[in-house]
Amino acid sequence: FYVLVTGILFYFLLKKHLIKIRNAEKKARESDQLKTAFLQNISHEIRTPMNGIVGFAGLLKENDLTKDQKEMYLDIITKSSDQLLNVVNDVLDVSLIDSGNVIINKTQFNLNEFLEQIYSVHSTILRKNISLRLNNTLYSSDHIVFSDSVKLGQILDNLISNAIKYTPKGEVELGCETKENKLLFSVKDSGIGIAPEYHEKIFDRFHRAEIETTKTIGGAGLGLAICRGNVNLLGGDIWVESNLGIGSKFYFTIPGDFVVQKPTVEEKADS
Ligand code: ADP
């Protein structure tokens, strides 16, 4: 009897141990696959603008260029350099967030002015088939917010850039409202959408939704990880609601460190 009980016990212990080993191997394999995909993606993200810079800098050396040609080549070199700088900044931001060395610098700022500025910067660089709308439900009063406006700007820039990048044609809407004493920001698009199994994973670094369209669009899978890191540092949450082929809406909150200033009678009359 004792031999039988020991045997059964041994069998279950061994089975548990084997399952643990198998799970650890699966995790290691997935992590390896992620690293390989990341290296491929980041190489591509670096090589494309580098090719632009090297190629067009070479062409600039030719003697018989018109003024328009020179301007066009310089424009491509500048845009490619910006792209390259963005990739490097993203890698640095991720490593800063990982090491816990991000410094949060909270100041008081006017929410309406802040949103108008974000909106106007993106409006000026829109593709032809995309429109951008600002839906600021708090517009009628001045909300003075106490937060890190630079980080907040980075988060919104990232979400709006993604919304534009993953929307071949349609509308992107930047929204702001208050919810349960918090500020709730949203960026909605009518783009390619995200399948439910990726709704949480995409906020982990290197993760990209594996559909054909994403592969052709390009990216290193760092932007949303940076957004989540920054939102958490500001004391909020970030999430997405999305339907494949219909569009996505990214939401994030920040704590309600704000005061509301009703406009004076003269200000109301002016506007
Ligand atoms: P990247 O865009 O460089 O791949 P991100 O971290 O910004 O990295 O996004 C991770 C993934 O989430 C993207 O690869 C894409 O699959 C998905 N994604 C992000 N934003 C959107 C969006 N607005 N519409 C559809 N998919 C999106």
Report on this structure:
This protein is an alpha+beta fold. It is built from 7 helices and 8 strands; from the N terminus they run ααβαββαββααβββα. The chain has helices at 2-60, 67-99, 111-124, 149-165, 212-217, 223-233, 265-270, and strands at 107-110, 130-136, 142-147, 170-179, 182-189, 238-243, 247-254, 258-261. The longest helix has 59 residues, at 2-60. The N and C termini lie far apart (90 Å). Bound molecules: adenosine-5'-diphosphate. The site of adenosine-5'-diphosphate has 20 residues, from α4 and α6.
What does this entry show, briefly?
The protein is α+β, with helices and mostly antiparallel strands and 271 residues long. It is built from seven helices and eight strands, in the order ααβαββαββααβββα.
Which key phrases capture this entry?
single chain; 271 residues; alpha+beta; five-stranded mixed sheet; globular; binds adenosine-5'-diphosphate
Helix and strand content put the structural class at alpha+beta
Order of helices and strands: HHEHEEHEEHHEEEH
Main sheet properties: 5 strands, mixed
Overall number of strands? 8
Approximate shape: globular
Fraction of helical residues: 40-55%
Bound molecules: adenosine-5'-diphosphate
CA(first)-CA(last) distance: 90 Å
Segments where pLDDT lies below 50 for 5+ residues?
Answer: none
Q: What is the average of the pLDDT values? A: 90
Total count of helical runs of at least 4 residues: 7
Strands ordered across the widest β-sheet:
2-4-5-7-6
Strand fraction equals 15-25%
Query: How big is the Rg?
Result: 24 Å
Domain Histidine kinase: 41-258
Keywords: ATP-binding, Cell membrane, Kinase, Membrane, Nucleotide-binding, Phosphoprotein, Transferase, Transmembrane, Transmembrane helix, Two-component regulatory system
EC number: 2.7.13.3
Main location: membrane
